[in-house]
């Protein structure tokens, strides 16, 4: 779910834009210059994946894949999501110009966290990798739903009902997301395991 | 006027159907638009940002840096409006921009549709869940106390929708009046890291390639009898589909990258564009920002 223009209080819109810009610069710096075109092309692939709709009972949900983006791109995930969101805003008006920072925080932070968790806990076994992949996919979606609710609720107590509804709407997404993430990880392990070694990541400096 | 107003429980029906009606009405209208264009069943097409054809209007001739800065500022001014009257004025202002830039209405309409789902959530929920204050007018249906229809909530939802529409409609005069590379070069001149704008250009370019690829894979699955349902088998097929999309795109990135290196790519692109500022650029920027400020001032001191 993308926050559109006109929903957030102006102070929140400006604040989240500033914080997002900061993290974006960090993410840009953590991405080696040689890998930039690769990140850009992968971004288009993620964008296309997010256009896929899956039926869930009577409704359908579309994939968000923040967890997978994090697992595949590591620190560059924030950059990739920024590019994707700008494109979605420019092309489809999903999310608005003034809410870009808020949307970026909402999708980018969970992706970074999922990347970190996947990187540290994927282990060597196939089963564990798939399980961690599922947890990252589902967990990142829960995290971003919570951030969305928090951002919506920042409009004042009138918005708490809407925030609750938005949270509720993410329940099916979390399930689908965890399932698809597990399946994608298992597929990639079979077909091209080197993709999951966070190919674009810089060596951890710490 | 404030207090609670008891009305028959039957009134609940139109109130609950209102957002649904708005949403499905929009869907139907876009369906009509699509049929006009003669598109098939599943719409995979990604709309173009750029304007086809070289139209000339005051907005087209505007220096792109001034245009970007003015529109961005105007967008933030517009979302800070607090009253419905000024938000309507903002909407009229953007519609005026459409006339000046000679942009087809349909493009703006598609943008509104992009937000329709999200905004109908506000239209449904805000009247029902807005906190009741002492001077609110609340409609209570047939004595069901907890399900009050708060008119202040409806007002708030309408205000949000108006603001969202005004800013969303700004996007077309902003983006469709210059080729995307020019807009991005303008952004780079304004201090956005050049690497970021180049990345945006590459992703935008490959987007269409991957949409094409995804459609080919989708057709392959359809031909083999794949039907989406809520089942584990669907999840597995979609997982493989997405995974394959990633593998193919990754392999393509390697080839693209090698091709760029072979053509002398060294981490940045040459910037052949040059900008020259004319007095008219300042004048247009001043007019636009002046309008925005006027709206905010009216909103703060004269309305409500």
Describe the protein.
The complex is a heterodimer of chains A (206) and B (304). Chain A has helices spanning 10-30, 36-49, 66-73, 77-92, 100-121, 126-153, 160-191; strands spanning 53-56, 59-62. Chain A has one domain (10-191): Orthogonal Bundle (Arp2/3 complex 21 kDa subunit ARPC3), CATH 1.10.1760.20. Chain A is globular and about 50 Å long. Mean pLDDT of chain A is 85; it is low at 200-206. Helix content of chain A is 68%, strand content 4%. Chain A contains seven helices and two strands, in the order H-H-E-E-H-H-H-H-H. Chain A has a two-stranded antiparallel sheet. The longest helix of chain A is centred in the C-terminal third of the chain and has 32 residues, at 160-191. Chain B has 304 residues and is mainly alpha-helical. Chain B has one domain (3-191, 273-302). Chain B is built from nine helices and three strands, in the order E-H-H-H-H-E-E-H-H-H-H-H. Chain B is flat. Mean pLDDT of chain B is 81; it is low at 38-42.
Give the secondary structure arrangement, pairings included.
The complex is a heterodimer of chains A (206) and B (304).
Chain A: H1 10-30, H2 36-49, E1 53-56, E2 59-62, H3 66-73, H4 77-92, H5 100-121, H6 126-153, H7 160-191
Antiparallel strand pairs in A: 1-2
Chain B: E1 3-7, H1 12-37, H2 64-79, H3 84-101, H4 105-129, E2 137-141, E3 148-150, H5 151-175, H6 180-189, H7 194-223, H8 232-262, H9 279-302
Parallel strand pairs in B: 1-2
Antiparallel strand pairs in B: 2-3
Helix pairs in contact in B: 1-4, 2-5, 2-9, 3-5, 3-9, 4-5, 6-7
């Amino acid at each position: 779910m993308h926050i559109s223009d006109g929903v957030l209080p102006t102070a929140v819109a400006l604040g989240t834009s500033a914080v997002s810009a900061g993290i974006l610069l960090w993410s840009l710096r953590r991405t080696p210059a040689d890998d930039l075109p690769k990140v850009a092309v992968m971004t288009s692939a993620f964008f296309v994946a997010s256009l896929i709709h899956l039926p869930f009972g009577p409704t359908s949900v579309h994939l968000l894949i923040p967890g997978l983006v994090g697992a595949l791109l590591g620190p560059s995930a924030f950059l990739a999501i920024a590019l994707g969101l700008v494109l979605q805003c420019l092309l489809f008006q999903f999310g608005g110009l003034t809410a870009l920072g808020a949307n970026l925080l909402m999708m980018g932070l969970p992706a970074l966290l999922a990347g970190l968790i996947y990187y540290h806990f994927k282990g060597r076994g196939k089963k564990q990798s798939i399980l961690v992949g599922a947890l990252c996919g589902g967990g990142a979606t829960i995290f971003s739903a919570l951030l969305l609710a928090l951002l919506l609720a920042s409009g004042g107590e009138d918005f708490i009902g809407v925030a609750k509804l938005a949270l509720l709407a993410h329940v099916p997404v979390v399930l689908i997301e965890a399932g698809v993430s597990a399946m994608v990880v298992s597929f990639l392990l079979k077909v091209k395991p080197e993709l999951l070694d966070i190919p674009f990541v810089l060596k951890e400096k710490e | 006027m404030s207090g609670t107003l008891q009305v028959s429980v039957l009134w609940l029906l139109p109130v609950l159907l209102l957002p649904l009606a708005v949403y499905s009405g929009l869907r139907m209208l876009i369906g009509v638009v699509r049929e006009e264009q003669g598109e098939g069943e599943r719409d995979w097409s990604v709309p173009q940002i750029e304007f086809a054809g070289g139209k000339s209007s005051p907005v087209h001739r505007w220096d792109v840096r001034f245009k970007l800065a003015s529109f961005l500022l105007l967008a933030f001014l517009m979302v800070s409006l607090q009253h419905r009257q000024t938000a309507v004025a903002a909407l009229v202002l953007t519609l005026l921009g459409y006339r000046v830039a000679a942009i087809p209405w349909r493009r703006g309409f598609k943008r509104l549709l992009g937000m329709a789902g999200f905004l109908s959530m506000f239209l449904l929920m805000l009247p029902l869940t807005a906190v009741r204050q002492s001077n609110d007018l609340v409609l209570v249906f047939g004595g069901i106390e907890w399900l009050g229809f708060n008119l202040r909530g409806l007002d708030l939802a309408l205000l949000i929708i108006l603001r969202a529409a005004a800013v969303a409609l700004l996007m077309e005069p902003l983006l469709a009046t210059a080729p995307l590379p020019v807009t991005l070069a303008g952004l780079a001149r304004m201090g956005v890291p050049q690497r970021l704008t180049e990345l945006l250009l590459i992703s935008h370019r490959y987007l269409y390639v991957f949409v094409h690829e995804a459609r080919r894979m989708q057709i392959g699955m359809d031909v083999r009898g794949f039907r989406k349902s809520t089942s584990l088998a669907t999840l597995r097929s979609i997982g493989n589909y997405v995974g394959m999309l990633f593998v193919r795109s990754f392999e393509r990135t390697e080839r693209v990258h090698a091709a760029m290196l072979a053509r002398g790519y060294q981490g940045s692109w040459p910037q052949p564009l040059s900008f020259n500022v004319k007095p008219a650029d300042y004048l247009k920027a001043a007019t636009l920002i002046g309008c925005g400020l006027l709206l905010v001032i009216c909103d703060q001191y004269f309305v409500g």
